[in-house]
Amino acid sequence: MEKPAAQAPGKAASEEKQLDDKELELERERKLKKEQKAREKEEKKLKAKQKETARLQAQATSDGPKKSEKKQKKKAAGDENPEDFIDPETPSGEKKSLAPQMAKQYSPSAVEKSWYSWWESAGYFGADPASTKPPFVIVLPPPNVTGALHIGHALTVAIEDAMIRWRRMSGYNALWVPGVDHAGIATQVVVEKKLMRERKLTRHDIGRDKFISEVLKWKDQYGGTILGQLRRLGASLDWSRECFTMDDQRSKAVTEAFVRLHKDGLIYRDYRLVNWDCTLLTAISDIEVDHLELKEETMLKVPGYSSPVQFGVLISFAYPLEEGLGEIIVATTRIETMLGDTAIAVHPEDKRYKHLHGKHAIHPFNGRKLKIICDAVLVDPTFGTGAVKITPAHDPNDFEVGKRHNLEFINIFTDDGKINSNGGAQFEGMPRFAARVAVIDALKEKGLYKDTKKNEMNLGICSRSNDVVEPMIKPQWFVNCHTMAKAGLDAVRSKKIEIIPQQYEQDWYRMA
Prior knowledge:
It catalyses: tRNA(Val) + L-valine + ATP = L-valyl-tRNA(Val) + AMP + diphosphate. Belongs to the class-I aminoacyl-tRNA synthetase family. With 512 residues, the chain is of the alpha+beta class. The protein is 40% helix and 18% strand. The chain has 13 helices and 18 strands. The strands form seven sheets. A four-stranded mixed beta sheet has the order 13-14-12-15, covered by helices on one side. The longest helix is centred in the N-terminal third of the chain and has 71 residues.
């Protein structure tokens, strides 16, 4: 076999050199191409940017006059004086003289100006007592004189105005009676603050008659706000019949109605629990009580107290039993009211207390005997100790228990929230929440205090004074409504009164 001839060393070196030169050339070409692509890419970006700049410049050039025109129009509208379109030449009470030109923008004051005074002076809203037309009457629910109208008032006025105008145009002798309400406590609070601020006096210092006189002065000074708002709303009210719930005519009517109802045996007086405000020294309605939900122990600022008061806790203590029977443990969120306790209630089926039925506990501070009564309505044997302290004069549930079991009702508070003589000499004269601390200390001294635990509770707060509402028994006037309710029911059944929509008839029957 033949072998390949061997190459000379010089020839091999020459071939290697040629190969290196070729690779270098290829590398240079690749680099040049890469640089060329980068330049082309940069040129494209530059062209795109120039194109966008040109487009924006063209758009700015085309929009410039339009924007300028809009700006000028807006400036012109802003320079326009709305007073130029309010007919200054129309005397009050005369028919409106329309402006010679319309305003470029809608102006309510320009459109509404002068119409209402003309309607009112022309007597368009008055009702004729001698008219033979069928009557249609609405009494405007009187807004409180203390404030201004809100959106709810505006809605009511709009609806009633539509109804009264429609009836008026339909041939009815339509009457819409305007008026304002004295607002009870709201006005009292405002006027009392004014008296204290200006003269350092309370309503008790000046007496009832002079205080009412101050209320009437305040109404005359500030009550015009609402009446002006009603006119601005365009309400077609008969202002010749304007009322105020404390004016002479209404006050005489209230007195007359009261006397007649009393003579007819329909008004009677009884003692009931009320929401008492110890700051305002008056009873307040349920709607004037705000409810504060407490989830745990909470310290609250109370009017008349320099330090916050503890709420949201349940305090347990023991009453000693007669005849050496030991003690019975109860719990309360208002420990100071134990000074007015007159009984302890247990469930009749609770075996733990069967041996105590009819027995008595002894009050540790005054020696009063507290009968142990059975009440399945109030007592839940599974809650707490199953024994409940009863304070009929200071708790709504206990009040009902007191009536069921003929218990004694003992009021332990003065009107300004201090402990009275019924609370015992040891605590008499103390503010109620100071007495709360003192009672706990006294129970500890006697070894009757057990413990304090956090407890969820609903706390009533007066919306006017922010004071804690105190349930307190007070004499109240009541009206026996049975005969009137029957007359109201019969009127609906006979269709003398029609309820619209008809499905609400059931509400009428249920509420009666």
